[in-house]
Amino acid sequence: MEKRIITAAITGSIHTPTMSPYLPITPEQIIDEILAVHEAGGTVCHVHVRDPKTGQPVTDLDIFREIASTVKAKCDIILCLTTGGGLGMSAEERVQTVATLSPELASFNAGSVNFALFQAMEKWKDWKYDWEPKYLKMTEDFIFANTFKTLREFSESFKKCETKPELEVYDSGMINNIANLIARGYLQKPVYVQFVMGVLGGITPSCENLMFLVDYAKRLIGDFEFSVCVAGRAQFPICTQSLLIGGHVRVGLEDNLYLEKGVMAKSNAEQVEKIIRIAKELGIEPATPDEARQILGLKGLNKVNY
Q1: Is 203 left (phi over 0), alpha (psi -120 to 50) or beta?
Q2: Number of domains present in the structure of the chain
Q3: What is residue 157's DSSP assignment?
């Protein structure tokens, strides 16, 4: 059977508590979600953290450590810690998760993008917390900045910690950024690319666009593994396409709050179970965490700092 890495993005920094009662907020809720994803057959969990009282995205290293160390004591799932943080955080804040905790895998945003969430304000009128509409509104005039200086500094931190970068690509120009970093010696092949589709400001999700991204990466990079995540309702169709063309997939409540049209996902594990059912119908099995460590060339749990 072919093996694919199944990632679940547990909570993210996009959706706010008003949008779903099932969005995990506290460390305990995030830990429970990760363990349920592992039980469901997931391979990797992509981890952001939030203020336990308000649900606002934060980069609290104590919370990251609490979650990571508790999960490590209970199972062998791979944790991919964010360096995206929450919108508006400095690059120095964002990279601290790698510099301090030295995870096996961490997100590495491959370029700057207009990362817009303001359009979500049209769907909700009554907010659970005052910070939510302010947070969303500010993205109309927000650039998620990942300059070439930032990319160089992040790559140096990742290399020092032996942390594998998961290279987040929101649009095609970021593939060229990755190729440039490889040419300059800051990244080493084979790289691991996550094609992020559906964020306003980035590339839209479609079969044609995914094929273009993969082909373009083959021409510019050559040797790479790739995964696909999709914001919104195209999550399962485009992730299924990724499986069909040899890619890995990411689901989870960071990207999509629904299991199907009109049905909210009650957990990340529900989405993992669904994509695994689809994969098995295609003759594909989820990779175990140890199989994924081999596929991606990760350093192993014994070398993390949590």
Answers
A1: beta
A2: 1
A3: H
